[in-house]
Specification:
Elements (H helix, E strand, L loop, with lengths): L3 H27 L2 H14 L7 H14 L2 H13 L6 H13 L5 H14 L4 H7 L6 H12 L40 H17 L1 E5 L8 H37 L1 H4 L14 H16 L9 H23 L2 H17 L9 H11 L15 H18 L1 E3 L12 E3 L1 E8 L2 E8 L1 H10 L3 E5 L28 E2 L5 H9 L6 H11 L2 E4 L1 H12 L27 H37 L5 E2 L2 E4 L4 E3 L10 H5 L1 E3 L3 E2 L4 H13 L7 H10 L1 H9 L14 H15 L9 E2 L3 E4 L3 H10 L2 H6 L11 H18 L3 H5 L6 H11 L5 H13 L9 H19 L1 H21 L4 E3 L5 E3 L32 H31 L4 E3 L2 E4 L4 H17 L2 H13 L12 H13 L23
Helix pairs in contact: 1-2, 1-3, 3-4, 3-5, 5-6, 5-8, 9-14, 10-12, 10-16, 10-17, 13-16, 14-15, 19-35, 20-21, 23-24, 23-26, 25-26, 27-34, 27-35, 29-31, 29-33, 31-32, 31-33, 32-33, 34-35, 34-38, 35-36
Pfam family, one: RNA_pol
Keywords: DNA-directed RNA polymerase, Nucleotidyltransferase, Transcription, Transferase, Transit peptide
Catalytic activity: RNA(n) + a ribonucleoside 5'-triphosphate = RNA(n+1) + diphosphate
Length: 1050
């Protein structure tokens, strides 16, 4: 609803402010105060973009405060006033600190003058101590200075705000006597955790973790030769990198010495001095190894590589600032006190990690603040740094192409990396590839260790509780609360504007999930590693080595165009197959190597979320969100006795995993589990040599893990009920997206088909849809339609399941067609030449049957889709909403970024601002994504509510989106909570609340209607106003039925 020109100007002003803030902060920390002063003055006097952000000035004030340069600070203060910029609380804090550290004789006079000006601005002395994020010893310096002129002043700290402000969770604010034990009770003592804290801190300061590879390698003479040659190369490269970096940096510095020529422009020189040369060398060497180990068929584009390399510099810089300002010592004290509470017993009746962390931190007022306000580096800065460092890699890193030839003594040096240009999605993309000899050398060396970024590896201590947008997860390594693309600034703005209390439920859910300790299921790990190193097994989803990929047989020279095309097609298929095998093999190698690294350790998985609120573990490889094999490797570190029903729950879980009894009742499944008990025991005792019953399961590795747990429980001398189990039992939602739609619309028929209503046996929506599709196919076949006849006997549940499941999450007909085609391709008897017409036929029938079955779902989906189209098209804004738990969401789908980096002298071109999600929305993506994003947010809200209430109940809980895990002993408690919270969520007027939010934000008032609007524009605005209020009508389904539905989650 704002003019594009105004949004463009706001975007440019914000972009310049971000660039200047980052630049001045780096200059201040590197001692380039004069450079920062000159640059700021240049943009104030000569830029056509206005600087109105006081933060830019505050950063330079901090530099003058550290050096005690009062004259310069007051001169800058005058300039700020002349530009009509109002000083902030932080401005006065730095002014007072500067006076205190100066050598002036009239300090008292200067301090009293500053206080008078501050009072005139409506800022009290105590406000300085409440609002300021302190750095180094600033707090003590300012307090001493104020007491010099106000001897009786003592700062009073405001009371902590810890309680929720949301009707769904307000009842959890009540304090009551609870007997809650620690998730890690009995696993560690305080002294052990103290040692582990130092181990974790060292890893995070190093940024990389070395992990021993599980790949079986022969220590042959050839491998030794390859390793020696690689070590020599790397040693030479390190010297070359240091020399090249120092030379290029000196050249850049020489260029900047001539101020007239540089024109006071922002440039990357200060960013290349924030670390010492050896640290830049380490960053480049890690990048070289990553590039050399990359896939032959895929690599990120050059801009992604630049940005990621620039990010490595930024991470090290942030760690350095935290260390230099004494933050680590304070953090250590707070963490160790928090860890004593975490390990228990919890005598203070506090059950939330956020409460305890904030309470402990509140006592540590001295020293730096726990959340230093370090400005972020914008994308074009990261690109510039990355380009500078990549120039060294591309230009200086050489390899002798004759080094592996036995009879050659002549050295022939060629670049170790080169660029290739690929045409993809109507654009030419630049990629970096290693020289084939370097890739061969690295593979032949079979290096015994893998290198991981520290945020890709689980923690060996409990994560820091999320208590703000900037603080949580890893100890000092940067962890983003929300995973957002770099250009998505609007959601960050909404998050910063939102009252912190609105985010407390999200913080606490992430904290609960991250507080659960894990361990590796060693018997399963050893078995998987054996199969992996023996060549893999495609049936068990253990990837085969890429070397097993068949080579292209030599062919006769094709004579015709068709033969040439077929030969090319065969080559491409083999190349694609090899690339897929390599990717899967590397993925398994990383997972298994990390699991082996933690085989005798306890570890934790810090969590964060995507922009919709969906929760994910931060470590991407070893976690419970991955494949069947990966999930089977993990179990709870803390065990619980099975109790009376625990063994039955494990049996049910194993039967569920097989996929053989989806339509049977709980009693029938349990009876089947007891009937196949001999096969279960045989699978556990002889997994590779017995009857191999477990291998026929849909989820074979988790099934085998369950078989072993059942055997162990039955062999327990004290009886199965006393067996201490670490095994997680899952309860999975029944097509969870459709469950939310049915509850939103109170659709009784839809609710019954997705098990919201009680029934004797579970309803299987996938089988129902498959039956309807088959019914339509029979009609068409009778009418002589050829493709319907060909599909006879092939319309099965498995073929259409994925399409039905993802329909509510926004899958298009094209995407659904690809899903069905993949399933048909896996059926051996289906004629492969008919896959495409058959998949097109089935996707159309599946969509039609779904719309027929779920009429209420269709209405809600259509309303959400059309609302998003009208908002993005008429208002020209991205669609926003707030989840029921208070998380602001902004859909980050905008038109392509206009960001560029000036290639001359690495200066940033400020005439081009990077694309923001404040304007120019992509209408098609906005409309298609709104329904699935909103449902994902509801799905996540339900999970978070379940998480918070399970924590209060004192039971272990983790989730894989709509699949909830707990100990066998506590499944019944989790099931009760899960149903209660689903009812609680949907008892809120979710759609009406959404409509009211959209109307308030996007509808046009009479005042906003332009007199010069054309009739079409007026009609469009009126249509928007009307449509946003037209919430779909609700049906007559009684939500309380969910409480009695056995198969809602089962």
């Amino acid at each position: 609803k704002e003019k594009i020109s105004e949004l463009e100007l706001a975007g440019k002003e914000r972009s310049l402010a971000i660039l200047l803030a980052a630049y001045i902060d780096v200059c201040v920390n590197c001692g380039f105060l004069n450079r920062a002063w000159v640059t700021l003055n240049n943009y104030l006097n000569y830029s056509n973009i206005k600087i109105s952000d006081v933060k830019v000035f505050d950063l330079l004030y901090y530099g003058y405060a550290k050096s005690g340069n009062v004259e310069k600070l007051l001169e800058l203060w005058k300039i700020m006033r002349n530009n009509n910029i109002k000083p902030s609380t932080l401005s006065f804090t730095h002014r007072i600190e500067c006076i205190a550290k100066s050598s002036k004789h009239n300090k008292d006079e200067l301090l009293n003058t500053t206080l008078r000006v501050m009072f005139d601005e409506g800022i009290s002395i105590n406000k300085l101590f409440v609002d300021t994020k302190w750095r180094g010893d600033s707090r003590e310096t300012v307090l001493e200075a104020i007491r010099a002129v106000r001897p009786n002043f003592n700062p009073s700290v405001s009371k902590l705000a810890l309680n929720y402000n949301n009707c769904l969770v307000n009842h959890l604010n009540k304090t009551e006597k609870l007997n809650v034990t620690s998730p890690a009770e009995g696993l560690l003592c305080t002294n052990e955790l103290k040692l582990l804290f130092h181990e974790q801190l060292k890893k995070e300061r190093d940024l990389y973790v070395q992990v021993k590879s599980i790949e079986r390698s022969q220590s042959t003479e050839l491998v030794t030769i390859y390793r020696d040659k690689l070590a020599t190369l790397q040693s030479n490269w390190e010297k070359v990198i240091i020399n090249a970096f120092q030379r290029d940096l000196a050249g850049l510095h020489s260029l900047q010495q001539n101020i007239r020529r540089c024109g006071y422009e922002l440039n990357i020189y200060p960013y290349l001095t924030v670390l010492n040369a050896s640290e830049y060398k380490d960053i480049i060497m890690n990048e070289i190894r990553k590039l050399a180990e990359g896939s032959d068929s895929y690599s990120p584009t050059i801009s992604v590589l630049y940005r990621e390399l620039g990010s490595q510099v930024r991470l090290r810089y942030e760690n350095k600032v935290k260390c230099d300002e004494g933050l680590l010592n304070k953090l250590k004290g707070i963490y160790l006190e928090y860890s004593r509470w975490y390990l228990g017993p919890r005598a203070d009746n506090c059950i939330l990690g956020r409460h305890k962390w904030k309470t402990v931190a509140h006592k540590y007022q001295q020293g730096p603040s726990l959340e230093p306000d370090i400005p972020s580096w914008p994308p074009n800065v990261l690109l510039g740094i990355g380009k500078f460092l990549y120039n060294i890699i591309m230009r200086e890193i050489k390899v002798d192409v004759n080094m592996l030839r036995k009879n050659s003594n002549q050295e022939r040096l060629l670049p170790a990396f080169y660029t290739v240009y690929k045409y993809s999605n109507h654009a030419v993309k630049e990629e970096v590839k290693p020289h084939p000899l370097l890739a061969r050398l690295l593979r032949g060396a079979c290096l015994p260790y893998l290198s991981f970024n520290v945020t890709e590896v689980p923690m060996v201590i409990p994560p820091v509780p999320w208590n703000s947008l900037q603080s949580g997860g890893y100890v000092i390594a940067k962890t983003n609360f929300i995973r957002l693309p770099h250009q998505a600034v609007l959601q960050w703005k909404r998050l910063n504007e939102a009252p912190t209390s609105h985010l407390f439920p999200c913080f606490d859910s992430l904290n609960q999930l991250g507080s659960i300790p894990w361990k590796v299921n060693v018997p399963i790990l050893d078995l998987v590693i054996k199969i992996f190193n023996d060549g893999g097994n495609s049936k068990l989803a253990i990837p085969e080595s890429p070397s097993a990929c068949p080579y292209q047989e030599p062919e006769q020279t094709p004579a015709t165009q068709e033969e040439k095309y077929q030969a090319y097609k065969r080559r491409m298929l083999i190349r694609r197959k090899k690339a897929e095998m390599f990717s899967l093999w590397c993925d398994a190698l990383y997972k298994l190597s990390l699991a082996n690294h933690f085989r005798d350790k306890i570890f934790w998985l810090p969590h964060n979320m995507d922009f919709r609120g969906r929760v994910y573990p931060c470590p991407p490889h070893l976690n419970h969100l991955s494949s069947d094999m990966s999930r089977s490797l993990l179990c709870f570190a803390k065990g619980e006795p099975l109790g009376d029903k625990g063994l039955d729950w494990i049996k049910l879980h194993v039967v569920n995993l097989t996929g053989l009894k989806k339509r049977d009742s709980i009693d029938e499944r349990l009876a089947y589990g007891n009937a196949v008990l001999p096969l279960i025991i045989d699978s556990a005792d002889n997994p590779l040599t017995g009857k191999k019953w477990w291998m026929e399961s849909e989820e074979p590795w988790q099934t085998l893990a369950g078989c072993m747990e059942i055997r162990n429980a039955l062999q327990c001398p004290e009886g199965a009920e006393n067996y201490i189990s670490h095994f997680p039992v899952h309860q999975d939602g029944s097509c969870n997206g459709l469950q939310h739609y049915a509850a939103l619309g109170r659709d009784a028929a839809g609710a019954y088909s997705v098990n919201l209503s009680p029934c004797e046996k579970p309803q299987d929506v996938y089988s129902c849809v498959a039956a309807l599709v088959e019914k339509e196919r029979l009609k068409d076949a009778a009418e002589g339609i050829n493709i319907a006849q060909i599909l006879d006997g092939f319309v099965k549940r498995k073929v259409i399941k994925q399409t039905v499941m993802t329909t509510v999450y926004g899958v298009t007909r094209f995407g659904g067609r690809l899903q069905i085609a993949k399933q048909l391709k896996d059926i051996d008897d289906f004629p492969k030449e008919h896959i495409w017409p058959a998949s097109l036929y089935l996707v159309n029938k599946t969509f039609a049957c779904l719309r027929e079955m779920f009429s209420s779902t269709r209405e809600i989906q259509d309303w959400l889709t059309e609302s998003a189209r009208l908002i993005s098209q008429i208002c020209g804004q991205n669609v926003e909403y707030v989840t029921p738990l208070g998380l602001p969401v902004v859909q980050p789908y905008s038109k392509p970024s206009k960001a560029i980096v000036n290639k001359n002298n690495y200066t940033t071109n400020l005439n081009c601002h990077y694309g923001m999600d404040m304007f120019e929305p992509n209408v098609m993506k906005q409309r298609n994504a709104f329904p699935p994003n909103f449902i994902h947010s509801l799905d996540s809200t339900h999970m978070m509510l379940t998480s918070l209430h399970c924590e209060k109940a004192g039971i272990t809980f983790v989730s894989v989106h709509d699949c909830f895990w707990t100990h066998p002993k506590t499944v019944h408690i989790m099931n009760k909570i899960c149903r209660e919270q689903f009812v609680s969520l949907h008892s809120q007027p979710v759609l009406r609340n959404l409509s009211e939010f959209l109307v308030k934000k996007y509808s046009y008032t009479e005042r906003e209607n332009d007199f010069f609007d054309t009739p079409n524009i007026k009609a469009a605005k009126n249509n928007l106003n009307t449509f946003l209020k037209q919430v779909p009508q609700l049906g007559d389904f009684n939500l309380s039925e969910v409480l009695e539905s056995v198969y809602f989650f089962s």
